[in-house]
# Entry
Amino acid sequence: MQWAMRQAVKDINEKGGILGKPVELIFEDTAGTPEQGVAVAERLINDYKVVAIAGEYHSAVALKVMEVCHKYGIPVVFAETWSDKITAAGYPEVFRIAPASSMVAYPVVDWMVELGVKKVVLIGENTDFGTGMVEKQKKALEEKGVEVETYFVEQGTTDFTPILTRIQAMDPPPDVVSAMAVTGEASYNAEQQMVEMGIAPTEKTIGVANQVAGKPQFWESVPDGNYFVFTKVGLPPATWNDTAKRVAEEYRKAFKSEPQSWVFEAYDSVMIVADAIERAGSTDPKAIIEALEATDIELAQGRYWFEYTSKNPVPEGVPAYMWHQWPAPPILVLQYFEPNQAWQDAAVLWPPERQTHGTIYIKPGTKP
# Structure
């Protein structure tokens, strides 16, 4: 993230800076701890006199940093912090371009509904993440008329046979079995056992994996995992625009590897702040906040704007976390269609505007 933010400043200064002056980036490491985050924010604002803050990876840190920014009226654009509470607080200074945690639960639901599924089985772990994910998806699916059955396991479960045996006995079989709400190695266990028991992915039943299916370790633990569907935050190279391609090229020169989504988020967070200052014609924090609310700019991850602002407050029925929240972070539904495939080469199924292979689902045994 530090590299990406420095690259953004380099690009800005090569084009003449902001308001005709060079931009200075002051980087501080929060070390992933809330206490350090508070100290860093206080130092940036009081010692370095910064007019805006961008970046951050950890939600726990962001929740403390935003209190400091709110106290002093300094705008902050968070790059990779997911907690719903960050934007739900409704602070005028706080903006976010990463998805809110709850936003990640719903694209796969929309995809299932579009497919016309009738019955879904959701497996989750007994953690805040697991139960929260299952409850959100169950409610959303049932509101669309989909029958849902849920099963819960302890975190770190290795043997899913008791649950899978019950699913195996269902007649007719469910349209979808999802282990999306089971994390880490346990999710790999669930997915491989699904395959071994002939439950999913099959001609009749779709298998949905946890997002760690996007890691190379997936194929080591789930060697029969072809045709699993999974979600991913971030864009595969096939969908990159010119800005993303250019940033990725510079990143490869520096690190000899491919950039992750947070590289683009960090780059874009700085660019969004710079654009707001330029449009505000001022470094006054209140003017910058007003300009941030009017953001409309195309950057590495696409077009940025903030739907709900002081001029368009969050209405009743819309989650509070949508305040100053970019409404379109790239949350993708993907599917493998080749054994040992890299996630970057998987087919993007959803949303429709980001599809890469012209299909909403690939039946096992076929190619797109």
Observations:
- The two ends are 35 Å apart (CA to CA).
- The CA atoms of residues 277 and 288 lie 5 Å apart.
